[in-house]
Amino acid sequence: MGEWFTRFFDGLYARVLADTAGDPRASDEARMVKKLLRLRKGQSVLDVPCGKGRLTLPLARMGLTVTGVDFTAAYLRRARRAARQEGLDIRLVESDMRNIAFDAEFDAAFNWFGSFGYFSDADNLAFCQRILRALRPGGRFLIEGINKSWLLTHFREHDESLHGPIRIAVTNRWDAATNRVHSTWVFTDGRSLERHTIVMRIFNGGELRSLLSEAGFRDVRLYPRPPVGPFTRHSRRLIAVARRPAT
Ligand SMILES: C[S@@+](CC[C@H](N)C(=O)[O-])C[C@H]1O[C@@H](n2cnc3c(N)ncnc32)[C@H](O)[C@@H]1O
């Protein structure tokens, strides 16, 4: 069977995940990331995983030095082509995010849009530790995802959506013992049918704070999305921003 994420992103989902041009919210999201990470023009930021460069490109347009990492080659090709067309200089690295080995290179890093919690508890922690190492002392790391407290009070066992010609039917089951959602995604586009089972660790604010602290980060701050007012258990989405200690 292997790991679900090694198959999911290359399938019909590839036609659903937006790039910058296909997502009018991308620039707003990039501005949010820049502000929360307190980034100034010329500073360096790591976008991991970067997908098709949805936020990588707008951040480069804002004058940041951006590196994107993802393991889906087709997504990186798309990002590279779009960057070339705009004359943007971005670095794109094809790699499993569990294997990144940057050393004190970046002023900031971020993991955006349900891209965290794919691995075992040990590997989710190890990923955060690799991010810590990738940052310069004092550098900041941001994670964005759904808030477990919200999810459990709004839990839907079935969900359906239409994305152009692609229909997605999702069946969800919550496993309280492991804090993971198990979802079966069935994609149909009139010609083919694709089925995937996804397992994701979902965090509440306290759990994400603990994980980041265990990885060695300090000053973990929680925000709702958009970051207006305080984060509460009723916030639909959760943003955590943490700092690598200065020494
Ligand atoms: C939901 S998408 C989000 C992409 C991007 N952050 C955005 O906001 O558009 C998740 C991304 O994670 C990538 N991915 C999943 N597992 C990965 C892994 N183990 N290593 C590197 N990239 C991975 C997929 O290729 C996909 O581009």
Structural class: alpha/beta
What share of the residues does DSSP label as strand, in percent?
25-35%
Number of helices in the DSSP assignment: 7
**SSE order, one letter for each helix or strand:** HHEHEHEEHEHEEEEHEE
| CATH top level assignment of the largest domain | Alpha Beta
C-alpha termini separation = 43 Å
| Radius of gyration (Å) | 18 Å
Give, in spatial order, the strands making up the sheet with the most strands: 3-2-1-4-5-11-10
Number of strands: 11
Shape: globular
Helicity, as a percent range:
25-40%
**Overall mean pLDDT score?**
96
Question: What this model shows, in words?
Answer:
The chain is of the alpha/beta class and 247 residues long. It has two domains: 183 residues, Vaccinia Virus protein VP39 (Rossmann fold, 3-Layer(aba) Sandwich); 48 residues, no CATH class. Helix content is 27%, strand content 32%. The protein contains seven helices and eleven strands. A seven-stranded mixed β-sheet has the order 3-2-1-4-5-11-10, with helices on both faces. It has a four-stranded antiparallel β-sheet with strand order 6-7-8-9. Helix 5 packs across helix 7. It is globular, with a radius of gyration of 18 Å. The protein starts with a helix and ends with a strand. The model has no long low-confidence stretch (mean pLDDT 96). S-adenosylmethionine binds next to loops.
